[in-house]
């Protein structure tokens, strides 16, 4: 069974209906190819208030065509669990062979799911990452094997047993950002590879402004800064911790300074990750990024 999991943060319902149309076609293709026997879609809601009525998920299931999605479930969390905590909550107690972590602001191509599962079947990878379009992630990957340093949580296929063995995402230390990097590095440390599947194309609705500036919300600035400090702490890079603190102190935004204050508060309270032993072969901190970039 393939279980698709999507965590919501106040999305418009029209966006989810659009995603349903994309999933409907992709699920039909993967079932017709006999790559999986069953597909279900779990929606978890971290919004301030419930986005759905009691029967909305079943209305979506009824609108799906043919014998595609076997079930669509919806759970309102009543709290902002972040992407990491939301994914963990959705996975807890549900049996499946494969987990697909999928953002709500996406639209998979009809063959995306099939390409992801085929790539996993023919490799020893623990995670297969989709190709993000129209703005590709610049992270480097091997053009022959697809091997890469980490996988983006916008759309990643994970072996379910491996997800459980590693305890899922670290929601205690990574709420919204760097949770996918940390999880990927733990997967690699466990002896598995991370693969990029260039033919598994998924539209990710991230749009630059007309002035070519990339729009970065305050929440992203905050959690990217805090996540980097937590990541460098866990993966035994005190030099990166010091470098990041210096950069924020010398020219960081007010939001980033708040993230630094939170980090220092957590250090004082002992709420930081334990250092991963023998992490040098896994963790990469390169020019402010977490892997070599192609461009």
Plain-language structure description:
With 295 residues, this protein is of the alpha/beta class. It folds into 2 domains: 2-204, Spore Coat Polysaccharide Biosynthesis Protein SpsA, Chain A (Alpha-Beta Complex), CATH 3.90.550; 209-295, no CATH class. Helices cover 38% and strands 19% of the residues. It contains 9 helices and 9 strands. The chain has helices spanning 13-32, 56-63, 82-91, 112-121, 160-165, 179-189, 218-234, 238-251, 254-269, and strands spanning 2-8, 39-45, 71-76, 98-102, 106-108, 125-133, 147-148, 155-159, 193-204. Strands 1, 2, 3, 4, 5, 6, 7, 8 and 9 form a 9-stranded mixed beta sheet that branches. Strand 2, helix 2 (56-63) and strand 3 (71-76) form a beta-alpha-beta unit. Helix 7 runs antiparallel to helix 8 and helix 7 runs parallel beside helix 9. It is globular, with a radius of gyration of 19 Å. The model has no long low-confidence stretch (mean pLDDT 94).
Any chance you could write out the topology, listing elements then pairs?
Elements: E1 2-8, H1 13-32, E2 39-45, H2 56-63, E3 71-76, H3 82-91, E4 98-102, E5 106-108, H4 112-121, E6 125-133, E7 147-148, E8 155-159, H5 160-165, H6 179-189, E9 193-204, H7 218-234, H8 238-251, H9 254-269
Parallel strand pairs: 1-2, 1-4, 2-3, 6-9
Antiparallel strand pairs: 4-8, 5-9, 6-8, 7-9
Helix pairs in contact: 7-8, 7-9
List the main descriptive attributes of the protein structure presented here:
single chain, alpha/beta, 9 strands, nine-stranded mixed β-sheet
């Amino acid at each position: 069974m393939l279980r698709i999991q999507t965590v919501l943060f106040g999305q418009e319902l029209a966006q989810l209906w659009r995603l349903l149309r994309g999933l409907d076609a992709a699920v039909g293709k993967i079932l017709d190819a006999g790559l999986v026997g069953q597909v279900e879609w779990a929606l978890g809601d971290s919004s301030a208030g419930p986005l759905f009525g009691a029967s909305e998920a079943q209305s979506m299931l009824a609108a799906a065509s043919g014998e595609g999605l076997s079930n669509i479930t919806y759970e309102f969390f009543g709290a902002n669990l972040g992407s990491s905590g939301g994914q963990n909550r959705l996975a807890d107690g549900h049996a499946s062979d494969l987990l697909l972590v999928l953002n709500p602001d996406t639209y998979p191509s009809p063959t995306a799911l099939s390409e992801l599962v085929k790539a996993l079947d023919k490799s020893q990878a623990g995670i297969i990452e989709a190709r993000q379009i129209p703005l590709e992630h610049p992270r480097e990957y091997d053009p022959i094997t697809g091997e890469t340093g980490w996988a983006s949580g916008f759309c990643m296929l994970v072996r379910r047993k491996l997800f459980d063995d590693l305890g899922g995402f670290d929601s205690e230390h990574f709420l919204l950002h760097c949770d996918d990097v940390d999880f990927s590095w733990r997967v690699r440390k466990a002896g598995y590879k991370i693969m990029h599947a260039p033919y598994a194309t998924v539209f990710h609705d991230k749009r630059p402004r007309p002035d070519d500036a990339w729009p970065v919300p305050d929440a992203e600035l905050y959690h990217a800064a805090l996540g980097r400090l937590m990541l460098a702490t866990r993966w035994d890079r005190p030099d990166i911790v010091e470098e990041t603190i210096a950069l924020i102190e010398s020219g960081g935004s007010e939001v980033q300074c708040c993230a630094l204050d939170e980090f220092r508060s957590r250090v004082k309270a002992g709420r930081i990750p334990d250092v991963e032993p023998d992490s040098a072969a896994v963790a990469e901190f390169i020019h402010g990024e977490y892997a070599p970039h192609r461009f």
